[in-house]
Amino acid sequence: MFTPSDVAGFTAPELRGEFTLRQALDRLLPGTGLAAEYRGGTVLVRGRSQSSPQEVTEGMESETEILVTGTRIRGRDTPSPRIVATRQSLENAGVNDMAGFSRVIAQNYTGGQNPGVAGAGDQGGQSNINNSTTLNLRGLGPDATLTLINGHRLAYDALLQGIDISAIPLAAIDRVEVITDGASALYGSDAVAGVANLVLRRDFSGVQATARLGASTDGGNVQQQYTIVGGSRWSSGGFMLAADYNRITPILAPQREYTRRLNDAQMLTARQHQISAVLAGHQRIGEGVTFELDAQFASRDMRKTTAFTLADPIVNGSTTHPSVRSYAITPLLRLDLPSDWTATLETTRSVSETIIRTRSFRNGVETPARASYENRLWNIEVNGEGPLFAAPGGEVRLAVGAGYRAFELGINVTRTIGGVRQVRRDATEERESQFAYGEVSIPFVGPGNRAPFLHALQLSAAVRYERYQGIEEVATPKLGLIYEPHRDVTFKLSWGRAFKIPTLDQVNEIQAGGIIPGNFFVPLPLPPLPSGATVLVLTGGNPQLRAERARTWTATVEVRPRILEGLQLEASYFDIDYRDRIGIPISDTLSVLANPAFADFVLLRPSAQQVIEIVEALPQPITNVTGQPFDPARVGAIVDARLRNTARERARGVDLAMSYETNLTAQDRLLITTSASYLDATRQIRMGLPAVPRSGVIFSPPEWRFRAGANWERDNVQLSAFLNYVGSVRDNRLATSGGVGSFTTLDLTASARTTATSGPFRNMEFRLSALNLLNEQPDIIRTTDPAAIPYDSTNQSAIGRFVSFSVTKRW
After folding, report:
1. pLDDT tens, 557-572?
2. Which domain holds residue 44?
3. Which of 11, 12, 594, 750 is exposed most, by the fewest CB atoms within 10 A?
4. DSSP code of 160?
């Protein structure tokens, strides 16, 4: 971004070779009196004695197309905290794919839907049935973090309402922008904890190929990755096409000292191979009319073996073979209208299908099963943005939009018992929504009316209305304030409402009943159940579920002291009050009969007729684990554990960030970055019960996460080092609490580009990475089951030291 008057009369010198944007500008700008300032994904070029970057932005609103995540208004900043990670910065840190990106964000929790979670991806009561990678800000669940690709939605992954970011090759990414604040007023459902937007590369000239080989030094996790990126630019458009193949071998229990007591076939991570491709392009088709297209495809196959005991899995265990096929295509038409207004019309068709073939063994008896989950999305949206009128501080700008969305979930679950194939579930559930939104940005103070201690003042307001067919109508507001008392200091305040619609599975999950011996429940009610009594437990979905709602607010201070150019400091306080969370209303099933807090969900001593009516209303036969024939007269209690809007969660904390970039010499550039996040989260299962900690306990987000590093560059050489810290957690599962230690790793990466101007070694780069260089091992946790995974895989990794080497060639 620059103003024409700033560069008038300058001629750039010739530039030959392979450079990053920063390296190119470092060679082009000396002697011109111009300076480049880097703010996230934007470069501002201005005179060294001119105004601050904020002033440059305000003076160019009519010329810029810059649109940042967190606002729909061009050229304006967002009042929400924003994290930007470029592809180059991730590669310099040793990140090779989007799964690696999820592990370097301090605000993200890597439990649940992430490949490293042990068992079938369900340690801690979560689920990852197809080895996907989803973002989970604040640990509120992947369904509470909205993930976008170039600003548009994709079909959800498998059963849970998350987006698999590992299906996008890192080579196709320009940058990732993360808003760590509720944004339902701008983007709709799911944006409770925040929004992540994966911005694709729009153009690429030439062809670039990369081959990478890596492995864990303790064994297993051998990775082969081959990537190719190609594209072209012309005067009226351009395109980029990226394809990636990735193959990973599993980590077996005998390959780690702390899991050698487990069966030799037990896998700690899955075997996987994946092919993915992304296309992004744009073409001007007339005066003020541009056509854009985003498309992606991914195919992933996995294998995971789990032993239920110390015996061979073909005696007691399972082998799962998930496969995922997904695609999405988004054509978009962009119109430049009079008076600096723009309009867009876009539609997205996206499908993600997961098929899981399972062989389960109990005492040597095999039970094959097959499950199919297909998510489909149609989204049509029209948007407009432009100025309304002039205010003392600049132009008042408005963004408006409306659209229609339809999504489906098709589920087919079968299993074979005694040679007979049984259909356990076969249904397709649909949902439609209509939405409209508006956002206004009002600059009260700007370049034309500044005063002491009032350098800039901007107010923004947004509201979104959504109507979900058959569920409810929701309107969510958001207010934001940006205040600069001085050009070096910025205060931001954001307040809003957010919501999340129940997932199709939560609403439509088949209700089921199970008969359990009454003596399993301790303590017993008074008077106790009769000898030999049983208990009927009801589980499943609930068509009466309502939207989950939240109130979010953040306060942020940013400092960019001109006296120390290149230094940026940021601190944010956040508070998320999440109500009507959907979940099982009973926190401890075995003590439910005697706990008065759960009295509303327990019917003691029902009549035989009441039991018969409930059982006959269930869509499938009940399961009976008592070993005796079902007798309605012997049911001493009915426990209703079906999903409800009951829980309340509160997440509060502080995010800290610092970056400092400086030229040590004319050839040496150093970038130092740190980020830390403190989380104080609690959960209240239902009203009347005390809130319990949700952070700092085992299989949950830690209270502290920290990452700090430095990146040094000189000409064609780059070195980086990063320290990662995951805080300790408390193991509160047994009568006496225990501790699980922290997890600290050190990552080193080095790269070098060839300087040859011709021949086979021209335009080549070599990169060597050593992640977890000191080979930090997970802390052992207490287990009562000898076959259980003996570490907290939601917070600590079994990968160990991982070394990789890559070669890149560009033509």
Report:
1. 999 998 998 899 999 9
2. 4-50
3. 11
4. S
